[in-house]
Amino acid sequence: ADRVRIEDARQVVAMDEAPADAMRKKKDSSMRVAINLVKDGSAGACISAGNTGALMATSRFVLKTVPGIDRPAIMAVLPTKSGRAHMLDLGANSDCSADQLFQFGIMGSVVVQGIEEIDNPRVALLNIGEEAMKGSDTIRAAAAMLAATRINYVGFIEADSIAESAADVIVCDGFSGNIALKAMEGTAHLVKHFLLEEFRSGLYGRLAGLIAWPVLRSLSRRVDPRRYNGASLVGLNGIVIKSHGGADIVAFQQAIHTAMIEVDKDVPGRIRTIMAEQGDREVLEA
Amino acid sequence: ADRVRIEDARQVVAMDEAPADAMRKKKDSSMRVAINLVKDGSAGACISAGNTGALMATSRFVLKTVPGIDRPAIMAVLPTKSGRAHMLDLGANSDCSADQLFQFGIMGSVVVQGIEEIDNPRVALLNIGEEAMKGSDTIRAAAAMLAATRINYVGFIEADSIAESAADVIVCDGFSGNIALKAMEGTAHLVKHFLLEEFRSGLYGRLAGLIAWPVLRSLSRRVDPRRYNGASLVGLNGIVIKSHGGADIVAFQQAIHTAMIEVDKDVPGRIRTIMAEQGDREVLEA
């Protein structure tokens, strides 16, 4: 059988196009056609390096969210000292209610359980202190809701503890999450910039750089952002992966790999199951 | 004349003490005594490595804010590719109104103008996109207010552009600011951890590490957090500097140095002057 089938699509969603316009006017864009294929079951997942807002809006419109999920979240992987952490939301929802943060926690737990094969992923809420009194009313309400479930909720986490592997799933609103992610990217670039500058200054620096090159290359590979490419739009009735717009072959391969794992582990099915259980519990408790 | 005078103080503010308790019950703590000395003019500045919340609450109570400033902000220095950037608020105010963000922008501009001797510091608002439509209503209202002043407001900035030296002053609410700062610290530690791991693994890595040592030490000095110790509590009628709790001699010296510069440049006076001008303009416009 053919491993690749090409579908026709005549329109292009511009990177700066308003999501609502893309949704209404670009019904023959590759983005929309790909999401339609996920919807009708002929594709297992959609991977796009296009306009994030348009991808989110179109996915929500075509695939709809899983019952019990108000809005999908963007979830990505980050390197930590002893492995990886998953963080959501990274920008789809600037402002989040306690209910939404709670839903992100539940989704994060079940998705990471599936794709990382961890029994009880540690779920934490991103906050500006670890004490229970810290943060907004919203975040404290979400904490109380998560603590009342059977997921492994470990409390508040500060942004510097993410790299310390203090949690497997970090839950936050899209504004904070996006800022944390970008701050991390910026700092990694800055340190790399300083490192290269040092190894390029003076004869000794250059010689040391030559000798240290294989070691530096190995470090560079470990923090290579391409290895972490492919953010999941979780909470939809279907798998949609957002690749970085500037992705090269290595990075795009990683995004495809993420999609394959999510298909294999039936991520949307897992979310549907836990949300249905959650709903039953609420009905019983009410 | 004696360069050092020791003042008696019989109480200690615990690191986990509630700010309100510290303020009411610890009137003979070194923190309170030092702030009182700033108030009565016998000290030019107070430097504390103690409880941040208590320091903020006590400073506000004793020194009061400059007319036109609702609440003080915590401002600190960050390394960037081509120099330094100043960021506020870093945690004093979780939730900020547009007015407060506006006040932070005005204060940041005038303080950085003084201490960095830059004519028109570039002031930016931290956001999750650079387009004018991005972010909350609050942040967009603050942007409109800053754009209408004579300060050099350059628009929204994403967290990864801070390290790129895209602005001299970065304005944000205390929640986002604290998360950005901690995310940066965590990433710097993570990269350092990976770097040391690489230079400690295998014979080649160890040898390369030995040769690269002077270069790595020079890098380490450049990103040494001790060189950035000493956050200013700006907006008060007096100079109060918060040092990191775990500061050693080098770090504390840096905090003292920051205090000396602020005394030399009369930071509170500069803020009073620009806020008075701002007030006059509002009266004229009204």
Features:
9 helices; homodimer; alpha/beta
Write out the CATH superfamily name of chain A. Isopropylmalate Dehydrogenase
Q: What's the multimeric state?
A: homodimer
Number of domains of chain A: 1
Number of helices of chain A: 9
Net shape of chain A: globular
What's the number of extended β-strand segments of chain A?
8
What is the CATH domain class of chain A?
Alpha Beta
Largest sheet of chain A: 8 strands, mixed
Provide a descriptive summary of the structure in words:
2 copies of one chain form a homodimer. In chain A, strand 4, helix 5 and strand 5 form a beta-alpha-beta unit. In chain A, helix 1 crosses helix 3. In chain A, strands 1-8-7-2-3-6-4-5 form an 8-stranded mixed β-sheet, sandwiched between helices. Chain A is of the alpha/beta class and 286 residues long. The longest helix of chain A is centred in the middle third of the chain and has 25 residues. Chain A has one domain: Isopropylmalate Dehydrogenase. The model of chain A has no long low-confidence stretch (mean pLDDT 91). The interface between A and B is large, with 57 and 57 residues.
